[in-house]
TrEMBL record:
GO terms for cellular component: endomembrane system; membrane. GO terms for biological process: lipid biosynthetic process; membrane lipid metabolic process. One of its GO terms (molecular function) is iron ion binding. Residues 81-214 form the Fatty acid hydroxylase domain. Keywords: Lipid metabolism, Membrane, Oxidoreductase, Transmembrane, Transmembrane helix. It comes from the Bacteria. It is found in: Endomembrane system. Its main location: membrane. This is Sterol desaturase. InterPro entries: Fatty_acid_hydroxylase, Sterol_desaturase/TMEM195. It comes from Dyadobacter luteus. The chain crosses the membrane at residues 6-24, 45-62, 74-95, 135-157, 163-181, 295-316, 322-343, 350-368, 374-392. It is a multi-pass membrane protein.
């Protein structure tokens, strides 16, 4: 059976997150916070999901460049593998540095830095937007002459390593601190302390930061997150808030040159008051105010079901048709949005539940177009609309309590 074994990444990462959680609990250190950890993993789930539809495109992009524009024809040897890992990491360094220095790139990369906690769940905060931008930077590799199979294999390794640098439980690692990016180095990178801003851009090797003058040793205790915290667990807002801020700031600029300068200017020069303006416009302040925490159980149930669905969707990717893949992906994406909205205790989460229900109804009827199925699903639909207010009230009471 032709299975997609990349699906193993889901239980693999979850296992290490669970181990870190248990070790932290035994050490008496509170490095996990429910809302933030769920929000972090939601971002990672979306990336894994969308990657299922885009990974092949990245591969063929590298293959096309290699076939048509390669300067050299590099073969796989020990020396060329070493050269590739160094080249990959050097390009990453500059991609990462641009991601912090250019507003447009920061709009895609900021999602990774939004979390106010620093643990393995923060290591999963990678978006598909980042993957696209990184691919454009790494496009130089096939042009140099590295073949697509070598590049994609290296990118898997290169993507795995930094996950393990997102932890507070591992101290300094002796001589490795001089060569590799360690958890200590990466804690500095994720900190919002003034002394730590825009430091330690390396992904695997810290040597680039030392060569190009961006190295900072861990000294004072780090405060994680943004210099102006986002204060939102919304899946959509965490992804798009900075793009919205850029758009509104650009609208206030006169002349196309000034607008372009804004998008390619520095985040350090960006007016922080713009966030307050767009938050007042797009973020409702009407949250449910409750003391109960029972909604956490419901979020965990949703989250667990979504992970199981994602795992089997990835594992049997080559044995499911495109329609089922798309419907399953939509259900997962709606669930991701729903989880974030529930964590923020929004009243409109019930509408997302209806959307998810109708997606399941539509998919069911697509595969079982029997009259009995049609009648049952019609009754479900009509009942949901007729008793909408009652169902919404009972739903909110069940999740949030009275």
């Amino acid at each position: 059976m032709n299975l997609n074994y990349m699906a193993i990444a889901v239980p693999f990462f979850l296992t290490f997150i669970a181990i870190e959680y248990l070790v932290a609990k035994k050490m008496g250190r509170k490095v996990f916070h429910f809302n933030s950890s769920i929000a972090n993993m939601n971002v990672g789930i979306a990336e894994r999901l969308i990657d299922m539809f885009t990974a092949a495109a990245f591969y063929f992009f590298y293959e096309y460049l290699h076939q048509h524009y390669a300067i050299f024809d590099i073969k796989a040897t020990l020396l060329t593998w070493i050269a590739l890992i160094l080249a990959t990491d050097l390009i990453w360094y500059w991609y990462h540095r641009f991601g912090h220095k250019v507003n447009l790139f920061w709009a895609f990369h900021v999602v990774h830095h939004t979390s106010e906690e620093f643990n393995y769940t923060a290591g999963t905060r990678i978006t598909i937007f980042q993957a696209v931008v990184r691919t454009l930077f790494w496009a130089v590799l096939p042009v140099i002459g590295f073949p697509a199979p070598m590049i994609t294999t290296m990118l898997i390794v290169h993507g795995l390593y930094p996950f393990f640098t997102h932890t507070q439980l591992i101290g300094k690692l002796g001589i490795l601190e001089y060569i590799l990016v360690t958890p200590s180095h990466h804690r500095v990178h994720h900190a919002s302390n003034e002394a730590y801003l825009d430091k330690n851009f390396g992904d695997m090797f810290i040597i680039w930061d030392k060569i190009f003058g961006t190295f900072q040793e861990e000294e004072e205790e780090a405060k994680y997150g943004l210099t102006k915290q986002l204060d939102s667990y919304s899946f959509l807002w965490q992804h798009f808030h900075y793009l919205v801020e850029l758009w509104y700031a650009a609208k206030a600029k006169t002349g196309i040159i000034n607008k372009v300068k804004l998008f390619f200017g520095s985040p350090a020069d960006f007016d922080p008051e713009v966030r307050a303006i767009v938050e007042r416009k797009f973020l409702s302040k009407h949250k449910v105010r409750v003391s109960t925490q029972k909604f956490r159980t419901y979020v965990l149930v949703q989250f667990s079901a979504m992970l199981i669905m994602l795992f089997f969707l990835l594992l049997f990717e080559h044995h499911t048709d495109l329609f089922l893949q798309l419907m399953a992906a939509l259900v997962i994406l709606v669930t991701l949005i729903n989880c974030g909205a529930i964590l923020e205790q929004r009243r409109w989460v019930f509408f997302l539940e209806l959307v998810r229900g109708f997606l399941i109804v539509f998919t069911t009827f697509y595969y079982f177009p029997h009259p009995t199925t049609f009648v049952l699903l019609s009754l479900f639909t009509v009942g949901s609309l007729v008793y909408f207010s009652t169902l919404q009230r009972q739903y909110l009471n069940t999740i949030y309590g009275r």
